[in-house]
Amino acid sequence: MENQTVLNMLVLSGLSDHPSLQLPLFLVFLLVYLMTLTGNLLIVLLICTDSHLQTPMYFFLGTLACLDMGYSSVTIPRMLIDFHTQKRLISIQACITQVFFIVFFSTSETSLLAVMSYDRYVAICHPLHYTQIMHWKTCVLLVLGVLVFSLVHSLVHVLLLLKLTFCRLNPLQSFFCDLPQLLLVSCSDTFINVLLILILAILVGGGIFSLTFCPYIIILNTIMKMQSKAMRSKAFSTCSSHLTVVLLFYGTGLFSYFHQNAKDHSAMDKVASIFYTVLTPLVNPLIYSLRNKIIKISLKSIICRLIQI
Question: Global pTM?
Answer without folding.
Answer: 0.90
